Amino acid sequence: MDSVTSFLHDLLKPLVVIAIIVILLLTVSGDLLGLLLSIRLVGTGGRISASPNIAIYEDVNCTSSLSYIDWGSLEPGLTRNVTMYIRNEGTGGTTLSLSTANWQPANISSYMNLTWTYGGRGLLPHDVVEVTLTLWSSSSPSFAEYLISYDVRDFSFDVVFNAMG
């Protein structure tokens, strides 16, 4: 029986050590995750600006103009989507481009990214295209460190749509 007990002891000892290490790692990473989840930015939103020959609307019938986006609260690693409708108000065909400007605070743009669903399709006069903007915020520890170090609690930026052609 002593050889069986000794064998089990030798077998289980490394497993107990591994289990303790795993529990410690989960506890530490859980604390870090808790810290990251407790950080919440409030997007004060931003203006929408567009070329003169396109218009931005909240609804598919193009009855309610959209000139401001309220991003709401955003935690590191999360995304926010905003859907809008863009109509060609000009007399010729056009394609669209997207850019951003006036990030506040300025360096926050290094930790956020704005994408859209527009695929480059040309718009004839009075054509309407549905576009969803997606704002992504980084989940990196350096972003959390930036937010804490500079006491960043809110952000804003402008969305710029340009018509080409």
Shape: elongated
Q: SSE string, helix = H, strand = E?
A: HEEEEEEEEHE
> What would the average pLDDT be, to the nearest integer?
84
Distance between the termini: 88 Å
Q: Any guess at the CATH architecture of the largest domain?
A: Sandwich
Count the domains.
2
Number of strands: 9
Helicity range: 25-40%
CATH topology description of the largest domain: Ctag/Cox11 (Pfam 04442)
| Radius of gyration, taken over Cα atoms and rounded to an integer in Å | 25 Å
What structural category do the secondary elements indicate? alpha+beta
Give a short synopsis of this structure.
The chain is an alpha+beta fold and 165 residues long. Helix content is 28%, strand content 39%.
Please tell me about this protein's structure.
With 165 residues, the chain is of the alpha+beta class. It has 2 domains: 1-38; 41-164, Ctag/Cox11 (Pfam 04442) (Sandwich). 28% of the residues lie in helices and 39% in strands. The chain contains 2 helices and 9 strands, in the order H-E-E-E-E-E-E-E-E-H-E. The chain has helices spanning 2-38, 141-149, and strands spanning 41-50, 54-57, 68-69, 72-74, 79-88, 95-104, 112-116, 128-137, 154-164. Strands 1, 3, 4, 6 and 9 form a 5-stranded mixed sheet that branches. Strands 2-5-8-7 form a 4-stranded antiparallel sheet, with no helix packed on it. The longest helix has 37 residues, at 2-38. The protein starts with a helix and ends with a strand.
List keywords for this structure.
single chain, alpha+beta, Ctag/Cox11 (Pfam 04442), 5-stranded mixed beta sheet, 4-stranded antiparallel beta sheet, 9 strands, elongated
